[in-house]
Structure formats: C-alpha cells, structure tokens
Specification:
heterodimer; A: 104 residues; mainly beta; four-stranded antiparallel beta sheet; B: 121 residues
Chain lengths: 104, 121
C-alpha cells in the first residue's frame, strides 16, 4: 500500500503570510494527488486536483505543485476564512493525516 | 446543481448495524462512483470503500471487509452503506462522495453533508 506523509500536522501563521504544506508518497503516484479543505463541522471541499489544477471557483491564492513522490500545497496570502484542516489524497483513495491551519 | 443528501444521525448499541443513505441529484447517478469516507471525532479522513452505481460492483478497504456492505438503488439515485457489528470506535461522521468513473479522475468533487453515527451502550 502507498503511504502518505503530510507535514506539518499543524501550523500557526499571520494573516497575509505564505503557508506551505507538504505531502510525500511512499512511491511514485505521478500527478494523482489532490488537496481538500475541511472547516469544522463541514464536509471536505476539493481545492486542487491532479497536483496543480485549481478546482472551479477556488480562489487563486491556493495552489499546488509536485509530481512523483513530493507535493506542495501553498496559500500565497493567508486569509481569516482559510482557517481549516487541509488534507492531501492520492489516487488509491488514501488521505494524508491532515494539517490544521490557525491564525497567529 | 449536484447534491448528495445523506440520512440523519443515528445512535446504535454495540453489536448492532447501521445503514446510511446518500441521495444524489443534479447529475447522472450511474456516471460516478460513490465512495464512503468516515471521520472519527477529532481524527482524519478514512476511506471505507466504493460502489459503481452502474454495475453494483464494490471495492472495500481491507479494514472493513466482512463488516461493510455498499448497495445502490438506481431507480431513486440513492447509495447505501451498511456497517455491521458496530463497536464504540465506529463512532464517526460518515460521508458519501462521488468520483468520476473516467479512469484518470481520482478526486472527490462533491460530498454529502455527513451522517453522525454514535455507538454507545
């Protein structure tokens, strides 16, 4: 089974900061890596699919990159409404452990 | 617009079974796999399995093999997830989520609102 290692598990940043989350696969998954945002009490929401494609309607401050085993998710300028937990997910349906993003 | 609407919260005793429904609307039900993902309180997302609404074929995560059954009723565009022999650690929010049957689309673009299942004596 392919394992996904997501880091950090939590972070605290100021409004306007650049935030970066990484996800590492235990073997090559090409670009089949997706990113979701989950706010408390809500279902996850797809933000980025196939490593770098922005889902329709998602603000452009969110972006993703990477291929093979190493992937990065970035919020270019953190906003108060971005407070959430972010998850990566690979093509075989396994999710990373999540990153809780808080405002400093 | 695409909607996945799940059944309401359930409280079950250990050893019982629970069946959660997910009614789809706004798209062709048989054109998308329906997956089930659960989330225990304060924990991450855990994939349980999927059903192909077109064929009825299923794939389950090894952890749930023998305890989970996923079915569908195409006449009412509804998918079901039944979990048996419930334990306290099955207490979680259960989500349905759709994924395109096209082979290279591996993402869940719409999710149900979630169904809280509480297992308690």
């Amino acid at each position: 089974d392919i394992q996904m290692t997501q880091s950090p598990s939590s972070l605290s940043a100021s409004v306007g900061d650049r935030v970066t989350i990484t996800c590492q696969a235990s073997q090559d998954i090409s670009n089949y890596l997706n990113w979701y945002q989950q706010k408390p009490g809500k279902a996850p929401k797809l933000l980025i699919y196939d490593a770098s494609n922005l889902e329709t309607g998602v603000p452009s401050r969110f972006s993703g990159s990477g291929s093979g085993t190493d992937f990065t998710f970035t919020i270019s300028s953190l906003q108060p409404e971005d407070i959430a937990t972010y998850y990566c997910q690979q093509y075989d349906n396994l999710f990373g452990g999540g990153t809780k993003v808080e405002i400093k | 617009q695409v909607q996945l609407v799940q059944s309401g919260a359930e409280v079950k005793k250990p050893g019982a079974s629970v069946k959660v429904s997910c009614k789809a609307s706004g798209y062709t039900f048989t054109g998308y796999y329906m997956h089930w993902v659960r989330q225990a309180p304060g924990q991450g997302l855990e994939w349980m399995g999927r059903i192909n609404p077109n064929s009825g074929g299923t794939n389950y995560a090894q952890k749930f093999q023998g305890r989970v059954t996923m079915t569908r009723d195409t006449s009412i565009s509804t998918a079901y997830m039944e979990l048996s022999r419930l334990r306290s650690d099955d207490t979680a929010v259960y989500y349905c989520a759709r994924r395109d049957i096209v082979a290279t689309k591996y993402y869940f673009d719409y999710w149900g609102q979630g169904t809280l299942v509480t297992v308690s004596s």
